[in-house]
């Protein structure tokens, strides 16, 4: 059996998205900047997609900028607010310890350029506290950026409340909503969001296309210079097929959100319930504030990487954290941020379930994980020390 349980890393392209984009890959290939009517079909599709995305998140079409993905949208939002803040003498940026690297590394870069960055604690439950945000705000704060839902542990942040706080202080508020878009309701007006990032490939559109929402009046700094596409804020011939697919996939996800959630939650809950029976295991992150599909657990005495390789040999695609940290031996910064000791964080497993998964697939995962964990423990020197009392169990 083959089970794809890594939907937080990427998703398959839906039939709806593929059908929507196909004409723009084949017959309607014009450049939307060209003046002849043939190319205007591409231009119309672009503006229709912009309208669709805007309507879904409660924005104006003029506030939607298409990018190459979530990373670019994060970069542009943060760099813009930093640079324009600096013009007014504001060089302080607030974020959290468990953001995606597209946010954290951008902030690191800005730090080198003289900005001061405060990274907020996310506590054991993986949820930022409003009072911590409030306490960190200064006269010279140029931006608060807090992710909507975490990509590794799935916890959802009090975005509306943080947005209201920022608005009351006149500070721009950005959220990386890449894990939330298409999976949870988002309304930028109701939630007091000034800037927001999305990525198509996390909700069944192709890779390489994303959205930056920037509220009217938010000054954007260009990351990519060139032509006057995207109201002069993002140069480069528009990725029309990708953009059309993104809008179609987002609409499909949002139209089916209730049904998808109702399908995913029982699968996720079964995974939590059954895998928790493994001794010395732990669920990571609060289940109270959670995206539907993400399951993150730690198993003491084993290495997440070995677990993934053995699961792969049994047909299960999973992750030990984000796809970006795979390949490095450091434990996940997200798991360290919620206070897990290094040795526990090493034994992590993320399963991310989508609406295309089935209960049979979940049963397959439940069948194979305990055996694999048991096997890895049987050959683990750390587990031996835990068992004979030379080491103390941490979970
Ligand atoms: C996947 C992801 C990104 C990066 O998006 P890309 O489109 O792959 O650049 C950013 N933030 C979060 C939370 C993500 O999950």
The kinds of small molecule bound in this structure are: pyridoxal-5'-phosphate
Provide the gyration radius in Å: 22 Å
Mean of the pLDDT scores?
A: 96
- Measure the end-to-end span: 31 Å
Strand order of the largest sheet: 2-8-7-6-5-3-4
- What does the overall shape look like? globular
Report the uncertain regions: 323-327
Strand content: 5-15%
Helical region count?
13
Please characterize this protein's 3D structure.
With 395 residues, the chain is an alpha/beta fold. It has helices at residues 15-25, 37-57, 70-87, 101-112, 130-136, 159-169, 240-255, 257-275, 304-313, 333-337, 342-345, 359-378, 381-387; strands at 3-4, 64-67, 92-96, 116-120, 141-145, 173-176, 195-199, 210-214, 281-283, 294-299, 316-317, 348-352. It is built from 13 helices and 12 strands. Helix 2 (37-57) packs parallel to helix 7 (240-255), helix 8 (257-275) runs parallel beside helix 12 and helix 9 (304-313) packs across helix 12 (359-378). The structure holds pyridoxal-5'-phosphate. Pyridoxal-5'-phosphate binds next to helix 3.
Put the structure in a nutshell.
The protein is of the alpha/beta class. It is 41% helix and 13% strand. It binds pyridoxal-5'-phosphate.
Q: What's the SSE blueprint?
A:
Elements: E1 3-4, H1 15-25, H2 37-57, E2 64-67, H3 70-87, E3 92-96, H4 101-112, E4 116-120, H5 130-136, E5 141-145, H6 159-169, E6 173-176, E7 195-199, E8 210-214, H7 240-255, H8 257-275, E9 281-283, E10 294-299, H9 304-313, E11 316-317, H10 333-337, H11 342-345, E12 348-352, H12 359-378, H13 381-387
Parallel strand pairs: 1-11, 3-4, 3-5, 5-6, 6-7
Antiparallel strand pairs: 2-8, 7-8, 9-10, 10-12
Helix pairs in contact: 1-7, 2-7, 3-4, 8-12, 9-12
The chain binds pyridoxal-5'-phosphate.
Residues 69-71, 74, 100, 102, 147, 151, 176, 178-179, 199, 201-202, 210 line the site of pyridoxal-5'-phosphate.
């Amino acid at each position: 059996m083959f089970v794809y349980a890594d939907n937080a890393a990427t998703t398959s392209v839906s039939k709806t998205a593929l059908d929507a984009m196909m004409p723009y890959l084949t017959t309607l290939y014009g450049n939307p900047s060209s003046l002849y009517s043939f190319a205007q079909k591409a231009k119309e599709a672009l503006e229709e997609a912009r309208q669709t995305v805007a309507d879904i998140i409660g924005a104006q079409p003029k506030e939607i900028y298409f990018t190459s993905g979530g990373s670019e949208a994060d970069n542009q939002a943060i760099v813009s607010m930093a640079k324009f803040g600096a013009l007014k003498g504001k060089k302080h940026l607030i974020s959290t310890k468990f953001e995606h690297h597209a946010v954290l590394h951008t902030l690191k870069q800005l730090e080198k350029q003289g900005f001061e960055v405060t990274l907020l604690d996310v506590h054991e439950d993986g949820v930022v506290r409003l009072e911590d945000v409030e306490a960190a705000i200064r006269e010279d704060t140029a931006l608060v950026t807090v992710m909507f839902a975490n990509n590794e542990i799935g916890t959802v942040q009090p975005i509306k409340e943080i947005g209201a706080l920022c608005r009351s202080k006149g500070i721009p508020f950005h959220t990386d909503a890449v894990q939330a878009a298409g999976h949870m309701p988002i309304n930028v007006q109701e939630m007091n969001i000034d800037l927001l990032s999305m990525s198509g490939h996390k909700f069944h559109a192709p890779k390489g296309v994303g959205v930056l929402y920037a509220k009217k009046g938010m000054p954007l700094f260009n990351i990519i210079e060139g032509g006057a596409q995207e109201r002069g804020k993002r140069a480069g011939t528009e990725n029309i097929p990708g953009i059309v697919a993104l809008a179609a996939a987002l609409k499909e996800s949002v139209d089916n959100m209730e049904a998808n959630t109702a399908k995913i939650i029982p699968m996720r809950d079964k995974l939590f319930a059954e895998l928790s029976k493994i001794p010395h295991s732990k669920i990571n992150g609060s289940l109270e504030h959670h995206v539907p599909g993400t399951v993150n657990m730690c198993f003491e005495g084993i290495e997440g990487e070995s677990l993934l390789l053995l699961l792969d040999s049994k047909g299960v695609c999973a992750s030990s954290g984000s796809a970006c940290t795979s390949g490095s031996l450091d434990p996940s910064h997200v798991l360290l941020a919620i206070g897990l000791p290094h040795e526990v964080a090493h034994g992590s497993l993320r399963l991310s379930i989508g609406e295309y998964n089935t209960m049979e697939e979940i049963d397959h995962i439940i069948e194979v994980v305990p055996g694999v964990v048991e096997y890895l423990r049987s050959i683990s020197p750390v587990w031996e020390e835990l068992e004979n009392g030379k080491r103390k169990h941490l979970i």
